[in-house]
Amino acid sequence: MVKLSQNESRVLTALVDAGGPSTMDELVKRTRLADSAIARAILSLSQNKLVKEKAERKTELKLTEEGRIFAKGGLPERRIASIVANSGGRLRLKDALRQAGLDEKYASIVTGWISRKHWGLIEKTGSDLQVVVEGEPATDEDEQALARLKEGTVVQEELPSNLAEAAQRLAKRNLVEARARNDREIEITDMGREAAVHARTAMEVSSLTGDMIASGQWEKVKLRSYNVSSPVPPIFPGKYHPYLRFLRMVKRKLVALGFRETVGPLVETAFINCDCLYMPQNHPAREIHDLYYLKDPSRASLEGYGDLVERVAETHENGWKTGSTGWRYKFSVDEASKLILRSHGTALSVRSMISKDLQIPGKYFAIARCFRPDMLDRTHLTEFNQAEGIVLDPSLNLRNLLGILEMFAKEVAGADRVRFKPDYFPFTEPSVELQAYREGVGWMEFGGSGIFRPEVTMPLGVNVPVLAWGLGIDRLYMMSRKIQDIRQLFTSDLEWIRDQTVS
Amino acid sequence: MESLEGDAVSIEVKDSNRPDIWSVEGIARALRLQLEIGRNRPVTVAGRSSLNVVVDKRVKPIRPFISAAIVKGLRPSEEALKGWISLQEKLDLTYGRKRKRASIGLYQADLISSPLKYTVADPDKTSFAPLGSETKASLRTIVVNHPKGSEYGDIISSFDQWPILADEEDKILSLPPVINSNDLGRITLDTGNVLVEVTGTDAETVHNTLKIMISSLAERGGKIYSCVETYSYGSPRRVVSPNLSPTLTRLSLSHVNKLLGTNLGSKDAARSAEKAGYRVLRTSGDTLHIAIPCYRTDIMHSVDIIEDIAIAQDLNKLKPEWPRIWTIGDLSEESYEKERVGEVMIGLGYEEVLTYALTSPQVVADKMQSTKQGLVMLLNPRMTTHTTMRNWLLPSLFEFLSHNTHVDYPQKIFEVGSTINRGESKTLPIKQNMKLAAVSIHAEAGFTEIRSALDALMQSTGRTFEVKQTEHPSFIPGRCGTVISDGREIGIVGEIGPRVLRAWGLNLPAAALEMDASFLANRGRNMNG
User: Fold this and answer.
1) Of A465, A463, A464, A481, which is closest to residue A473 (Cα–Cα)?
2) Cα–Cα distances in angstroms (integers) from residue A261 to residues A274, A467, B333, in the given order
């Protein structure tokens, strides 16, 4: 026995009540359900062979203007035959037409039909035509059909076959017009009828209402038992986005390790994003294929940074007081004032270091949306996320940097082993690449790090070692979810998002 | 190391700042020193060559600097030639910034008579046979037709006269920085004496490039002879190249140990420095007197040397140590705010989505029937779909929905993200706001539903507010309201207009809201300098 949903029961009961095949419109009226709900119920019912769907082509018949006139006043042949019969059975056609108030053009129509219908004879006397009848002819099928049509639109297939033929004859005389119509009808099957009996009883006792509880009625009815293992309609819960949930998890781990989260603007100045990080102004990473520049507005004023601009400029040019030779070129404030989209999370580390809220000892991190002018493909996004952070204290050294990296690899990435490789960034020295090993995945590059160069920290007014690190969290997430294509992170596939677990 | 196949080792050089190891010779030298094979001998000049260079003042605005040297006594192998060409190309490309800042030429020194003239010539009246061709062609024809011409011709083509290098007999050596001549400028297995010349726009880069190139040649057993360049401008007017003398510096051992967290003695540190390619002249107390080889153009600060000592020690032998400092961790106020808003929206049955902040005016304005005013456009977009920063979030959500018309409805989604608008401030003429946007789309979606969600959100976040009738081109007239709290407009709510829905290929009614999500978070920490 198939268990029916509430809507399926209602549709089935309605079909029984209708006593025959029903259209969608009829079902909407009877069930008071929405079209889409009925359609879903029918789909399921027909899969269970409880209903049959019939799509039928029907012909709708309707009187034309002329047809309506004759439906009211009688067909021309009828009118003439009546007049002739009343005049003794013989009359000149011209006179008969005049008496009937019919135009001369009907002459041939009238004579034609009177002969064809065997109502009388047409005799020719000189140039005159005489109509001869033996009494008033009986009402014929054409007239019956006309009478039916006078009531309104008629479906041809619903007429008895003789009237349907008559209607077609009328159609040929342009008294009736025919229009095709597609009708979807739902018909209940024998199995369906049987199920409906159960459905009706089940409905009566299926829902426990407030009234039933209050009135004690519940004691008198038997609540229908449900098939608790049958499938139910899906609902889609509100959920966090899977990748954003992962980022929240990373944040929680970093907070647990004593890091304070910072945020900053997506649109940066080249000054903060590059110059403060001791990236020379002709550095390839500052070219237009590595950095998004803004068209308009294209510049910001650096006045708010005060002496910092001068210190950074001098550090680039000659090392300032940092003990460095500097990059030895002419620093351009205009170049530094260009507006760009943040290209790496390290820009946020600069913001942390120049913030008046900076604390030493301190640990800061940010998960930063960053932008680079790459074409989208399996391994590149034009915007992506970087986890980035700094640790500041007079006591810090390279072994502490390795300690931080090792902790991240184990705590955040669940790595079994780590190893370190030399790396290069313009803003750190020494620079270290972290590689993490995970059973089943192998060695993977997991992050870049280093100790900020004095050329970076001193102009910013920070005179302690600053350990800086960045983690490739996009890749880490892809690894944990076995995602091959990085574009999946920003997927617009709602089904995929709905399918993801909250684990 | 990338791979090891038979006799061939393929390695990745991560140090983009170390042009001295962009060659087989450079890597061999670094390995030899690291493995302590043989003595660490400095590169030196064997003597003065007979070749001088005279610099015409007309090259000054085009490519003002030249530096040359001759390496003698080479017996190049096929491999060596290939290696030098590849080093030359790599230096031209990266260190020379695609030959703009510096470019290298190698020539058969024996075929060239002194003095060498670095001068200019008429591109249409001067001709020579470029590398790879037997026939002479005008400079302009070369720039148009030769593959290197189309690659590098732009560097000089805007000038009326172009730089050339010619010898005393007016034989043309090259058209810098485009191409060498086919006879003088092609070195072969028989070339024992090679002239190396670098021209460019930055004197230091030009000199450094020469040093790196000839050090590499000298590694193959050649001896280096200097040249004299005479300028008619700038200072000094007379330059002897190359200058291979090392840079002398002092390194504090305690600084090394402090930065690395080690406890190295002076002998340990000195040995590591030698392995890294420095020469330690002597140690006195805490101080190491160090000679930096001439080809180490990357050394700017003692930290650069200290890193090399750490690498020579092997990073993996240093013991990692979690820093013993106490700090209190915390999320940013923005993160808390996102969580608060997220909790309510998820409770209301909305699914969180993540979309790009970079988009296009078609998405944020055209399809929404809205205006392009205040959009912040990129100067150098890579894709037509990513040309501007979004100034509101709802368009991204509708773009998302347009990809999901085959997926079960109802669809209720939200996103919390940043929007970018033009701002008034001179310091940063950009306004960034954190916004919440939400859309509900299904057969019965309508104003009441989204307004109820708004009420729930405001009630849950403890804000009083009112909604006032407003007009917005994306919404149905008469079914759109502005959300006002504390006298400020903080959002918009309503039913989306059918024209917008059609533009996105959506066939169901949709109700939406977009609000300021940061309006609760004004008391938080913010590292905006």
Assistant:
1) A481
2) 22, 16, 9
Residue with tokens 């035959």: A81
Closest CA to A477 of A492, A489, A493: A489
CB hemisphere CA count around A321 (13 angstroms): 9
Q: Which residues of A touch B330 (CB under 8 A)?
A: 255, 260-261
CA A479 to chain B, closest CA, distance in angstroms equals 19
Reading the block at residue B124, the tokens are: 């249409």
DSSP annotation of A138 reads P
Q: Calculate the average pLDDT of chain B.
A: 91
Phi-psi sector, A90: left (phi>0), alpha (psi -120 to 50), beta: beta
Q: Which residues of A touch B429 (CB under 8 A)?
A: 297, 300, 339
Q: How far is CA A418 from the centre of its chain?
A: 44
Q: Domains, chain B, ranges and CATH?
A: 42-241 (3.50.40.10), 247-316 (3.30.56.10), 333-520 (3.30.930.10)
Which site among A267, A289, A405, A425 would you substitute to test the B interface, given the most B Cβ atoms closer than 10 Å to its Cβ? A267
Tokens 């001549």 belong to B181
Rounded CA separation A466/A444 (Å): 25
- Cis bond before residue A76 (omega within 30° of 0): no
**Please, are residues A167 and A153 in contact by the beta-carbon 8 Å criterion?**
no
SS3 B66: strand
In terms of Cα–Cα distance, which of B453, B422, B459, B421 is closest to B436? B453
pLDDT digit string, tens, across residues B125-151: 999 999 988 899 999 999 998 888 889
Mutate to test the interface with B, among A40, A260, A269, A500 (most CBs of B within 10 A): A260
Give the whole-angstrom CA distance, residue B343 versus residue B345: 6
Q: Quick check: bond before A237 cis, omega within 30?
A: no
d(CA B228, CA B529) in angstroms, rounded, equals: 52
Q: How far apart are CA A19 and CA A30, in angstroms?
A: 12
Among B73, B100, B74, residue whose Cα is nearest residue B155:
B100
Mean predicted confidence (pLDDT) in B79-91: 91
A357 to B527: CB separation less than 8 angstroms, yes or no: yes
C-alpha distance from B369 to closest chain A C-alpha (Å): 22
| pLDDT beneath 50, residues of chain A | none
Cβ-based contacts of A467 with chain B (< 8 Å): 323
Beta pairing partners, A371: A383
Query: CA-CA distance, A181 to A61, in Å (whole number)?
Result: 10
B316: contact with A, CB 8 A cutoff: yes
Query: Cβ separation of A430 and B307 shorter than 8 Å?
Result: yes
Please name the helix (run of DSSP H) or strand (run of DSSP E) that holds residue B229, with its range, or none.
strand B223-230
| Pick among B97, B249, B315 to test the A interface (most A CBs inside 10 A) | B315
| B178-191 pLDDT, tens digit each | 999 988 888 889 88
Which domains does chain A carry? 1-50+189-231 (1.10.10), 65-177 (1.10.10), 245-499 (3.30.930.10)
Check residue B525 and give its pLDDT: 38
The values of phi and psi at residue B233, to 5°, are: -150, 170
User: How high is the pLDDT of residue B524?
Assistant: 38
What would the DSSP string read from start to end of A168-225? HHHHHTTSEEEEEEEEEEEEE-HHHHHHHHHHHHHHHHHS--HHHHHHSGGGTS-PPP
- Residue recorded with tokens 């539903």: B449
d(CA A472, CA A435): 11
What would the DSSP string read from start to end of B417-445? EEEEEE-S-SSS-EEEEEEEEEEEESTT-
pLDDT of residue A365: 97
C-alpha distance from B360 to closest chain A C-alpha (Å): 14
